[in-house]
Structure formats: structure tokens, C-alpha cells
């Protein structure tokens, strides 16, 4: 794979002045793009080698600078790689990047002091001569006998589906039609069962295939009798590339996801397009992804937002809330602070007030949770008292106590009531003993089967997944009427 529509990288003409760090690191090195190698391959050289030196790419709107270059920006690059040698070659795959203008910066020791003058890079699109799907297999949302069904597979093509034609492969049922654009539609017959089949993608001389499963319910079954709910951060190191995010979500088998660190809703929209899902996005960077239709939404109330999701028309609905509470400062019970000091620090960062505001907004939904089950998921940026052991001082963290006071259930501790055997669940890169991601629920129609943490490649947070059995008295009433 070589450069196609890439303009030459040029030395940045951007004016900057250097500050002197405590270690007096000077930009005496160099960074250059290698034209005859795959995108983006850099040659670099420095007189200050270190195992934590790194090369990063920043979008044009953030080139790693702040006012007059007096201080380095802490903005996270869109992609990066370590460059530990005095002289060497490294590669940042272009598959992680969108077309556009980027700035390449060579920095020292996990910091933002330059080791070389930056580069400005332009590229239109990485040209992929082959064809591939992001995942090898996918389970789509449930179908039901005698009811019309639709889905799309185009978003699972790696890169762009432009120029790709889709065709049925093996074991495709007669009731199912597949358009050349990857759209699936049809009506399963009364005797239809779960189906697994292959779909082929063709572009020029290249082909790829994906295994597709569609669970099919009979006419008298609930559409969704098991539901997987996930709380997940899209933070800087968490499944950083779009393809990795899609793969991670597919492999989790989640049905509804509460996202945090969503870059003002941008990633939710892109992921929903690839997955063929529904979404609600917030400029506060917490969003919702759902396999099933979103009927209505409520805009942000403080640090939360809500979507009413229809699992099966008006007969089976859930109220899904996502939240992301304020982050730093973060007070540790075992960090030499008294309980009063921790409470004060929590109050200073507004987390207790934020969770109170969220729970007040949920009040009406919580009152009717036995009719429409309620979920509250998100990153609370504080531990839970349910995870407390002796070394955690048994501290009553307000953000975990208050949800229980209004009848919400911490699904993870419902499944795993003993905190001692699993001290690293939901780890962060800062402290590997604190669980900061949560899936709460309320409603007699929900039964926790299991709950676990799914780890991606060096995440900021472990994503929490809870599997529920779902019962529904309203659905039972519908069946009695039908009989």
C-alpha cells in the first residue's frame, strides 16, 4: 500500500516560540514522511532518545500549540505511536484517520515538548486495493414471523462501500432479499427460525464475505426476551480507531449502549451509520446507540440525556438514560484523606449535585418503572461503596449511594455481590482498584443474568456489560387479548 492522492508533506510554516522545560529539551531532531512506504510512515531522529518519546497526528484545528507556543497543548492526538530510538522508522496506519489536513509532532517522554519541528500533512483518501469487512460475523437485531424486517450491511465494509455490490452467499432463506447496496429486507414465514447465512461483497476483482445471523421470534413470542446493555467510554485510548470501535461493539453483542467521551456526538453518529443502528447524540459528549428504534428523546438535563427505545412497538419499551459526571479532581479514600476531606472534594467537583439533578429528572420514569423499565448507565468518575473492602475504608460515595436510594439497582453488584474476588473490574489507567463505569436499572420486568467487564486495547475504562432476562406484563396482556 503506497501513497496515492497524498500531497507532499512540508515543513510547517506555523510560527511558534519554544519554552524551556525543566529538563531543557531542545527540538534538535527531525521528522520526515517516507513516500515509498505505507501511510503514514515516518523517519525520525533525535539527540534525546527515550522509550516514551512519541509521534502523534493532530487534526488541523489542534496542532499541539496554545497561545504563542508558551505552553504545550494537552489535547490528545487522533493517533500516535512511540518512537524510542535515537534514529528510526515508525508507522501510524491511515486506516484510523479521516481525509483532511493533519500536523505531525515528535514529542518527548509522554509529554508535549517538541523534539523536532512539526510537519503539515494532507491526504484525500487511503486507497485500498483489496476488499474486506471490519468483522467476520455479525448478529443483527431480532425479527419476528409474519412481520416485515429490514437491516443494512454496507457500513461493515472496511473503508468505504463505494463501488461495492452485495450478493447472497450460502444458506440465505427465500424470504430474505438483499439489494446491491447491502440493504436486507423481507418477511419471515410463520415457520421461520433463526437463520445464519453469508453475504458476499464484490468490487472489481476483489471479493469478501461476512457471516450474518438474524434471530427470528415466532408470532407469540416477545421480540426481545434477553437484552444486553453496555456502558462504554470512547476515550483517547479506548478502541481508538473507528474500525476497532465497530469490532468491539459487534463482539460485545450489546443491544443498547451508553457512550461517554463521544467528541460532541460525532462518534455516535458515525458508529450508528456503520452498524445500521439508531442513535441520540449530545454535544456534552454522552450519547446512546441502539439496535432498536428510538421513539423519543429528552435533551440534556445537566449531565444526562434520555431516549425511549421501542424493542417491539408500543408493547415493549424501555427508558434509557446516559450520564457522564465531572472528572478531576478525584479523591481517594486510601490516599491519606479523611472522609470529610473526600466529601468536600467530591462536592467541589459537583458530582453529588450532578447525580441529584439526574435522579430528579428521572423521577417520573422511576415511578412507572414496572411498566417501562428504566436504565441509567454511564461513567460516574467516582467509585462505588458496593465495591468497598477494608482498604477502601467502606466509604459511602454519594454517586453510588443516591441511585440506590431511589430504587435503582447496580446490576454489576447484583450479579457479583462480593467485591473481593474481582478488584480490577472497570479499571482505569490511573487507579486499577476503582470501578467507574456503571449500569443501573429499575423495573420488575428486568432480571440480571450476569454482568461483566469487557476490556479493549488499553482502555481508559473497562466497558461494563449486563445481560438481562426481560419479562413484560403488557406483552402478556397483548397475548391474552389475541387468544
UniProtKB/TrEMBL annotation:
Keywords: Signal. InterPro entries: Endo/exonu/phosph_ase_sf. Residues 1-22 form the signal peptide. This is Endonuclease/exonuclease/phosphatase domain-containing protein.
Amino acid at each position: 500500500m503506497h501513497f496515492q492522492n497524498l500531497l507532499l508533506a512540508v515543513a510547517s510554516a506555523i510560527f511558534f516560540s519554544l519554552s524551556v522545560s525543566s529538563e531543557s529539551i531542545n527540538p534538535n531532531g527531525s521528522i520526515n514522511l517516507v513516500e515509498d512506504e505505507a501511510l503514514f510512515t515516518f523517519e525520525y531522529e533525535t539527540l534525546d532518545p527515550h522509550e516514551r518519546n512519541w509521534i502523534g497526528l493532530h487534526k488541523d484545528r489542534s496542532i499541539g500549540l496554545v497561545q504563542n507556543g508558551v505552553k504545550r497543548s494537552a489535547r490528545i492526538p487522533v493517533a500516535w505511536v512511540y518512537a524510542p530510538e535515537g534514529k528510526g522508522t515508525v508507522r501510524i496506519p491511515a486506516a484510523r484517520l479521516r481525509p483532511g489536513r493533519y500536523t505531525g509532532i515528535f514529542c518527548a517522554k509522554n509529554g508535549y515538548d517538541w523534539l523536532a519541528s512539526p510537519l503539515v500533512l494532507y491526504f484525500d483518501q487511503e486507497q485500498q486495493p483489496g476488499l474486506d469487512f471490519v468483522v467476520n460475523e455479525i448478529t443483527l437485531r431480532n425479527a419476528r414471523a409474519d412481520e416485515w424486517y429490514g437491516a443494512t450491511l454496507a457500513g461493515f465494509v472496511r473503508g468505504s462501500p463505494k463501488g461495492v455490490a452485495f450478493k447472497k452467499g450460502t444458506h440465505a432463506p427465500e424470504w430474505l432479499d438483499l439489494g446491491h447496496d447491502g440493504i436486507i429486507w423481507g418477511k419471515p414465514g410463520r415457520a421461520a427460525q433463526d437463520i445464519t447465512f453469508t453475504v458476499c461483497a464484490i468490487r472489481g476483482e476483489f471479493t469478501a464475505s461476512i457471516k450474518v445471523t438474524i434471530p427470528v421470534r415466532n408470532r407469540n413470542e416477545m421480540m426481545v426476551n434477553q437484552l444486553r446493555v453496555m456502558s462504554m467510554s470512547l476515550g483517547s485510548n479506548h478502541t481508538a480507531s473507528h474500525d476497532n470501535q465497530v469490532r468491539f461493539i459487534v463482539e460485545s453483542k450489546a443491544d443498547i449502549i451508553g457512550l461517554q467521551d463521544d467528541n460532541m456526538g460525532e462518534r455516535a453518529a458515525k458508529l450508528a451509520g456503520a452498524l445500521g443502528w439508531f442513535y441520540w447524540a449530545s454535544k456534552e459528549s454522552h450519547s446512546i446507540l441502539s439496535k432498536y428504534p428510538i421513539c423519543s428523546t429528552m435533551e440534556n438535563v445537566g449531565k444526562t440525556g434520555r431516549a425511549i427505545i421501542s424493542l417491539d412497538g408500543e408493547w415493549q419499551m424501555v427508558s434509557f438514560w446516559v450520564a457522564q459526571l465531572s472528572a478531576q479532581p478525584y479523591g481517594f479514600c486510601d490516599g491519606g484523606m479523611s472522609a470529610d476531606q473526600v466529601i468536600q472534594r467530591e462536592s467541589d467537583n459537583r458530582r453529588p449535585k450532578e447525580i441529584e439533578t439526574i435522579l430528579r429528572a428521572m423521577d417520573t420514569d422511576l415511578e412507572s418503572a414496572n411498566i417501562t423499565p428504566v436504565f441509567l448507565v454511564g461513567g460516574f468518575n467516582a467509585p462505588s461503596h458496593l465495591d468497598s473492602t477494608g482498604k477502601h475504608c467502606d466509604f459511602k460515595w454519594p454517586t453510588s449511594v443516591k441511585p440506590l436510594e431511589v430504587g435503582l439497582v447496580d446490576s454489576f453488584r447484583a450479579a457479583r455481590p462480593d467485591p473481593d474476588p474481582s478488584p480490577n473490574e472497570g479499571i482505569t489507567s490511573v487507579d486499577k482498584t476503582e470501578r467507574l463505569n456503571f449500569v443501573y436499572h429499575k423495573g420488575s420486568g428486568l432480571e440480571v443474568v450476569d454482568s461483566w467487564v469487557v476490556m479493549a486495547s488499553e482502555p481508559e475504562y473497562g466497558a461494563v456489560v449486563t445481560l438481562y432476562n426481560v419479562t413484560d406484563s403488557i406483552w402478556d396482556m397483548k397475548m391474552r387479548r389475541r387468544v
